[in-house]
Amino acid sequence: MKKFMKKYLLVLSVATAGILGVNSCAEYAQSIARPIDLITDDQLNNESQVQFLSNGVQRQFSLCYAQATSLSGALSDEFLFDTRVPNATFPTFDEVNSGIIQLDNNSVNGLWALLGNMSFTADNFAERAEKITFSSPAAKSAALYTANLYGGIVRFWYAAYFGLEPNRGGGVIAGGPFIPSADMYAQAVQRLQTALANASTDLQRRTANSIIAKVELAAGRYPQARAAAQNGLRRGDAPLTALYDLGTTISNQWFFDGGRNRAQLYPDPRFAQYIAQDSLEGRLFPARAQGAAIIYTGTESDFNTSLASRRLLLHGPITNMGLTFFIQGRFPNQDSPMPFITWQENELMLAETAVRANETASALTNINNVRTFHNLRPLTEATLDIVYVERDKQLFATGMRLIDQRRFNRWHITTPNTWRFLPIGFPERNTNKNLQ
Amino acid sequence: MRNKILLVLALLVGSFGVVMAQNATVKGKVTDKKNGDGLQGARVTLTALSNPATKYGKIAGKNGEYEVKNVPAGKYSVEVSYVGYKTAAQSLTVDAGAASVDLNFQLILDVRGLDEVVVTGVASRTQKSVAEVAVSRVNASELTDKVGYTSAGQLLQGKVAGVTITPASGQVGGGLRFNVRAGAGLLGGSPTVFIDGVRVASGNVAGFGTGGQEVSALADLNPADIQDIEILKGPAATALYGPQGQNGIVLIKTKRGRGGEQDQITIGYQGIFGWNENHRNFTQNEIESWREANAIFRRGPVQQHGINLQGNSGIFNYYVGYENRAEQGFVIQNSLARQSVRLNLEAVTSKDFKISASANFVDNTIDRPQNDNNLNGWQFNTRGRSPFAPPAGAAGAMTLSTPNGFTDPVLGGRSVYGGIDSAAIAERENSFRTQRFTGSVDIRYAPSFLPGFSLSGVVGYDVRNSNNTIFAPANRIYPGVTRGLRGIFAFSAERLNFDLNAAYQYNLGESIKATTTVGGQAWNEFSRSVESQAQQFPTELIRDVGAGLATTRVVSEGLFNIRNAGWFVSQNFDINQTFFLTGAVRQDYASSYGVDAPSIFYPAASGAARLDKLGFLPEVINLAKVRVAYGENGRLPGFADGQALLWTAGTSPYGAGATRSIAGNTAIQPERTQELELGLEMEFDNAYGFEATYYISNSRQSLINLPRPPSTGLGNQPSNIASINGWGFESMFYARPIQTADYSLDLKFIFNYADNQVQSLGFEAGGPAFLSDSFNYGFLIPGQRRGQFMGLRPIQPRLQPNGYYDWLNQPRVGIEIDTTGVIRTPQGNVVGYSIGSSVPLYTGSFSLEFRFLRDFTIYALAEYAMGGYVYNGTRQFGAGVANFNDPTFNRLATQLGIFGAGVHPTNALAAQERGQGAQGLPGQAGALTVGRVPGVDVLTPGTEEYRRAAQAFLNLDPRVASLRVNNFAEPANWLRIREISLRWNATRLFNDLTGGNIKNLSFTATSNNFMLFTNYSGPEVEINAINGTTVAQQLNASQDFFTLMQARVYNFIVSVGF
């Protein structure tokens, strides 16, 4: 009897343990430590999270900007690729530089993905700002200003830099259909107008107007550009700047793609010529190839002084394997900030639109406002050619040359059927039903 | 008188009692049936039929003689077992009053280990001869006497049908990739590894990157501690392990104490002395920088001392092992220093309970060199550039340093080092130290009051603390580093697993034994990491990360915790030891952040029949078994995959900002892989045999991170829409044609065929037409193999009217490609031709072990692979970008007149296209300095010879991505003499000469990776750039980009046992 009881108890115990075990499997699997780095989407629907959201949008802006300017610089006649430049090894840059770009070019596709992240983050912030209950109208306006300003900028980049065909510019928003450049520019302006309506300071208003002018200019809508620029940034206004630093994941990509750290791209020799013709345009800082390395010399404080006042800074000349080249020094460090819109660009937009409106005297004033700021000799005439060159110098490495070359119809690659926009690549084409 | 009578009665009773109490001695001899040799060490066990719990045992002594004393009268079953022999059993009756009974045994060699008990499922063990699934066992303890191994993974190379193991590189302590059968699921993956019941971390640990060289977690295990390794290969066999078994289960069992004579202690010492070296040198026909490439190699010494104690204290069987290994790789900065202590205990506390515990502590430091795809690396800098740099003394020339232990090549001061001095590479440090404890407790309870019932439980714990530090001194120049770099990565991880099973074995009638098993497993993984980096140090003398410039500091933290749990029920029938049937189901649950845990049922069924027991086969066939098994399992979704949208913090100068993290799929489900395997195993004359298995598998609702359109900004979406089929055949033939006292010969041949085909990526459901990674040329595309190389084919060179090869424009503009039969996506995008498989279709090995003059053994293992391709990215880079480092490219360029004064052909092209003049074209002034190969004539345009050179040049054209696969994916068949050794067992001679009684003394000379034969042009054909399961990593399987070749290792091993 005792033995029977032991058997009975054992079987009962095992059965009970089994049933409890089965039932607690799901509970056990779910009893995990909460992640320290993840939050759910609904947790952000609160005014206290707005600064966090705003930072996120600006972060995406910085990530995109340096990348966009280096790749658009490579496609334009602003920067060149040559394997004789030490450590210039990426065939993807070579492709962009030649205008014969494969759809699997991962540098191009990388920028496309960054723009997607930025548009999602900005638009998500804009939608969320409408849902959040704010403590004051001003707080809501501040959120909407940021969300729409950067939502407009990313649309500008889509329109200006990407295309579905070599000569058919435009982009895609949120997996939707292809939006040709003209329509995308219009969307950008619409967002920027919303930002303008929510601006809370004069500087914000002037900044938004200058960016609207920049977009309208790129779209070839010169009267609209002029109207906006007239309410844009003035001398003394701080530029809207993309920030970078040394200690986070946000580095200025020029440092790695066309700068002191590694130079996949080097500036066209004409920039050194500009300095040779007029030493006040910029400065050349010595550098040399040591084996395959580039050694940068010169006094850092001297360099930094020049950085503050000159519009062109180059390292070189450097000779390696028969090639003499320079390295851009405009954004020399991993944390060099990059202005997206400046009062100087606003002046040059005013100058161009004035010339196009046959107001050359006014245009000359605008051009010389910029030149005299850099202690350069004032010019005596203002033409579209002069504006074209002044923009080339003033806006060096800020991604405007590609747009200008197309606007002024001065394409540099003679090979037919090459890309004048960065191609929308396989990752989008293969997954976006609207493009198939 | 009365007293006398009482005394007589007492004596009678006493004497009767004495007579009644007189037990017998059972004695005899255990010998080898073929050669009659006595088998010292054979275990003889008598089991009383009246009470199976009553056992008497003895270990056979010298000449195989044994004697079991004091055996009461009765009926017994006597079983004799001996390692390497089939277990023999006889019935024995000890008559009352018998003083002794003689019983001899002649054992038959068990060439294939058919009588060994193997694991066939999560809670099932059975003899291999009746196993219903394909299971492989590797006797590690025999191998470690024959060959010196650094890592447990090496033990399995070439030993197991259906499994290939590819090392990451020749780096000591480097990672491994397992390919098990055709790979289950869309992305394949590695098996799960258990050591003594502990589910251990076995993957690679990345730490700070050195260019693709990760550290293998299996390098933390001392191979000398391993007794054997068993492998279950697919869902058919591993269904009851749940999702963790999808790509196989590796069960490592470490050595136990020997249950011999009580208090008898065996002490063993093994010393290994040897060196690592590059398995071949580069030649001048291969790369221009062959001198520099060879100059970084050295002989890296290997030294290991291991001591172990094994014994039986009466209550405990114990094994204690200590190992100290110091090893240096054949490239400077690569070394391993490992100390390991192991204690294994087995206690039989009562006849019902058995408790065993296993504990291992390891301290392992692996120093890694900068390698592979790395501007700071040895490979990139010595193989990526030609020596056509400015000569010494010229402007821009670079002076090479000579660090300790490293001799720079002498090339008139020319340098191939790109942007970095060789001394700077030599001073860069990457040290990965791991302290790891692995332990388990295993309790088995078989109550005597309930015969047939047993409970078993295992708790396993694997905890490690790793510390990866990097350092680049401030006084050296490094690409990507400003005035020095210091980084610290501290990683701690713990894994806890529980395994509880209850089994009840009972009879259903006279001929059917049934076993019902229920059980469950639970597993918890928790890890934390902290990383800190800084640059811009004021001096190279300080390496405290806090001394770096504050604004350069990067600090991050990670925490990860997941759990799995599952339960199963299994029912097994054994019909007359001839037919075997099993059916089972399992349910699993996985952690899921913020939503309900996903769960899934997986069924399994298997059966086997011993045809040789049915009596219709000739006697020479001692084993004929057919088996069939079906099983399901699959991967569970990631713990956050079920969330629609999660955010994280992205650091920036604006302050941390909201950054989209995972945009998941609320409908995500676990995937399901089904596998059916059919097997046949035969053995003839106890000496020749084979086992073969055919399998088919498919994964439906396979988990895939479905790429969303990048314009959504949402990243990939976990989805269940992909599917893939796999199939293959694996076989092993073995033979022992010679077996005498002085000679024996063992032969083994493994042949595997494994293939797969992607069925769908869910294009119709919104999935992509194909998947690839921009840097890789392996694709996932429906109708093709996983990771198939695809590319375009140029037809012929286009010649200009003047007869010149239009090299400058052709590859870029209007390239003429073969368009017939090209693969296109549903959208019409050209993917290209199917060039070849990135994974070999046919693999296997030959091995031979020949013992001669009784005490000498020659052993060799050759592994082979066929039907695979390797993408030679190193050659593509050398030809196209790195300035004339491919001699063939240079010779052809010279023949075509594409060279010039300091003008690389690519740049001549670039210059012309940009309208800057066609520099360096033939006939121009100043041509013919850099780039022209001396002694090679420029051919006349328009001639057939010129056209042929142009064709050859076109086929080396590295510049257009779509052509690269065609030009640089090479067939990569290979045969490698993986292991070879000569061993002298000097035990007999020593004992005879000295009259001693040592148990073992042997001397072995051995080599790993002794020789390689291949049609692949690169230095290393076994390529495993990264081990992982992401799309990019899977597609990167066979892409050679400055991969460090594997080491050839020579070792001398001394083993002594007392």
Write the layout of secondary structure elements.
The complex is a heterodimer of chains A (436) and B (1058).
Chain A (H helix, E strand, L loop, with lengths): L1 H29 L8 E2 L9 H26 L3 E2 L10 H8 L7 H26 L5 H25 E4 L2 E5 L5 E3 H17 L4 H18 L2 H8 L10 E3 L11 H4 L8 E2 L2 H8 L4 E4 L1 E4 L2 E4 L3 H10 L2 E9 L2 E6 L9 E4 L1 H14 L3 H14 L10 H11 L6 H7 L14 E2 L2 H4 L7
Parallel strand pairs in A: 3-14, 8-11
Antiparallel strand pairs in A: 2-7, 3-4, 4-5, 6-13, 9-10, 11-12
Helix pairs in contact in A: 2-3, 2-4, 2-5, 4-5, 5-6, 5-7, 6-7, 7-8, 7-12, 8-12, 12-13, 12-14
Chain B lengths: L1 H20 L2 E9 L10 E6 L6 E5 L5 E7 L2 E8 L6 E7 L5 E3 L2 E3 L9 E5 L2 E4 L7 E4 L1 H7 L5 H5 L6 E5 L8 E5 L11 E4 L2 E3 L3 E2 L9 E2 L9 E7 L2 H4 L10 E6 L10 E14 L11 H6 L4 E13 L3 E13 L6 E13 L5 E15 L10 H6 L38 H6 L1 E17 L7 E20 L12 E24 L3 E24 L18 E22 L3 E12 L8 E12 L10 E13 L12 E5 L6 E4 L11 E13 L3 E20 L8 E24 L4 E17 L10 E2 L5 E3 L7 E4 L31 E2 L5 E7 L5 E11 L3 E11 L2 E4 H8 L6 H9 L9 H9 L30 H11 L6 H8 E3 L2 E12 L1 H8 L5 E15 L16 H5 L3 E2 L6 E11 L1
Helix pairs in contact in B: 9-11
